[in-house]
Amino acid sequence: VFRKQWVNLAGSPTSQHLNVHAPLPFLSSGIGLSFQNDELGPTQYQSFQLAYNYRLPVGRTGTLSVGASGVWRQSGLDGSVIRTPDGNYSDNNLPVHNDDLLPIDLVNSSAIDATAGIYYQSEVFEAGFSAINLLSQPLEFATLSVQPERAYFFVAGANFDIGSAWSLHPTVLVNSAVIQTQTDISVLLR
Questions:
Q1: DSSP state of 95
Q2: pTM of the model
Q3: Are strands 160-162 and 106-121 parallel, antiparallel or unpaired?
Q4: Contact predicate 187/168, CB 8 Å
Q5: What is the pLDDT, as a whole number, of residue 184?
Q6: What distances in angstroms separate CA 8 from CA 15, 38, 40, one per listed residue?
Q7: Where would I find the beta strands (DSSP E) of the chain?
C-alpha cells in the first residue's frame, strides 16, 4: 500500500505498508511479515513485524489458533523543521525553539515489542483475545520519551442460519487500555 495525502503541501503525510502472510500447512501454522513506513512533517516512523501462529483442530468443526509476533520500531523527529510560536528562526544558525523538550536537529530512537493472541472458531461460534505492546518499551529521545500503551482486544461472534437463504451474524468487539474501554456491537444479515 502506498498513500500520499495533500500532495503539494510541504510535510504532507506519506505512508507505505507491505504485508506478506502465508500458510504453512505441513506445520499446521502460518507466518507473516509486515513493514510500515510513515512520514508526517518532522516525524518518521518505521516498524518491522514477524508473526507466527499455530492452528489446532478442536472437536469436529472447531479450530484453535495461537499466535505471537515480535516488533521492531524506530521513530525519528527532525527538530530543524519544527517551528514554535515563541521560537527564533531568523538566523541561519541552529533553530531556537524556546522549548526544552524539542530537539534542534534529527533524533532517532528504536525499541522492540511483542504481541500475542488466541482465537477459537467453529461453524456457529468464534471468540478471540489478544494483546499488543506487551513489553511497552518506550522510544527514548534525549529530551522526551514516547511510551506505547499496552492494549487488549476481545472479540466474540456467532452465526445463525435463518431458513435456507439467510444468516445472522452478531459480533461484539471490546478494546481496552485498562484506563479506557471501547465496545463495538454489530449485526450482519446476509
A1: -
A2: 0.79
A3: unpaired
A4: yes
A5: 97
A6: 15, 17, 13
A7: 2-4, 14-24, 29-40, 43-58, 62-78, 106-121, 125-132, 139-140, 145-146, 151-158, 160-162, 166-176, 181-189
Return the pLDDT at 55.
95
Residues forming beta bridges with residue 23, ordered by sequence position: 30
**81 φ, ψ to 5°?**
-105, 0
The residue among 140, 93, 86, 85 whose CA lies nearest residue 112 is: 140
Q: Which cell is 29 given?
A: 501454522
Rounded to 5°, angle at Cα 106 from 101 and 110: 85
- pLDDT category, 95, cuts 50, 70, 90? confident
Task: Answer yes or no: are the C-beta atoms of 73 and 84 closer than 8 Å.
Answer: no
Between CA 139 and CA 120 the distance in angstroms is 34
Alpha helices by DSSP H, the chain: none
Dihedral sign computed on CA atoms, order 145, 151, 131, 186: negative
Q: Are 4 and 28 in contact (CB under 8 A)?
A: no
